Amino acid sequence: MIRVLLAEDMHMVRGALIALLNLEPDIEVVAEVSSGDRIVPTARHHSPDVCVIDIDLPILDGLTAAATIRETMPQIRTLMLTSLGRPGTLRRALAARVDGFLLKDAPPSELAEAIRRVNAGERVVDSKLALAAWDRGECPLTDRELEVLRLAANGTDAPDIAVALSLSAGTVRNYLTTIMTKLNGRNKVDAIRIAEEAGWL
User: Fold this and answer.
1) Which of 9, 163, 171, 201 has its CA 20 to 30 A from that of 52?
2) Same domain, yes or no, for 152 and 101?
3) Are 101 and 92 in contact (CB under 8 A)?
4) Which residues contact 49 (CB under 8 A, 6 or more apart)?
5) Last residue of a domain, which of 107, 134, 161?
6) What is the 3-state secondary structure (H, E, C) of 40-76?
7) CA–CA distance, 193 with 79 (Å, rounded to integer)
8) Domain containing 19 — which CATH number?
9) Is the pTM of this model over 0.70?
10) Average pLDDT per block of 10 residues along the chain, 201 residues long
């Protein structure tokens, strides 16, 4: 029997997934959580074989929880679910060394099969997402440009970014202009959106 921990914040979705998975003869949902901060302690308590985790969870995101599981309980496999088929999200998931990545609109039979394959030690990645991530290419921004853009994405203005990074405000504005040019963004907000969708932030 494959023991599963399910992390999903939408109650109806979580209930439906539990009901569907418990119909499988070799899968049992032994624990459920609705927020990311509960994943690691619940996994420690129940020792599931596979954690099925929604990427977008309140309090702590699913990828951060999955990375912690990988570091502290490497025997537990992680399968990420997302409703957003962004190539950048897949790249972030692979960087966190999750074992599987599946879109939420996949058929229930596909989820059950993914759980079995992940439990058997395979890596499972949605094929359409894998192709899109392959096609997207590398981030064109330097590490310093990414630092500036991350701070801007958090709502920090140019003078405060300058203080945080020990730069002049003019240099920060130059960085932001370069970033917008490289990402082909109409403005700073558009550049942040492009970088977030590509998984570069």
Assistant:
1) 201
2) no
3) no
4) 2, 3, 4, 76, 77, 119
5) 134
6) HHHHHHHCCCEEEEECCCCCCCHHHHHHHHHHHCCCC
7) 26
8) 3.40.50.2300
9) no
10) 97 95 96 97 98 93 93 96 71 81 87 96 80 63 91 93 94 94 89 84 77
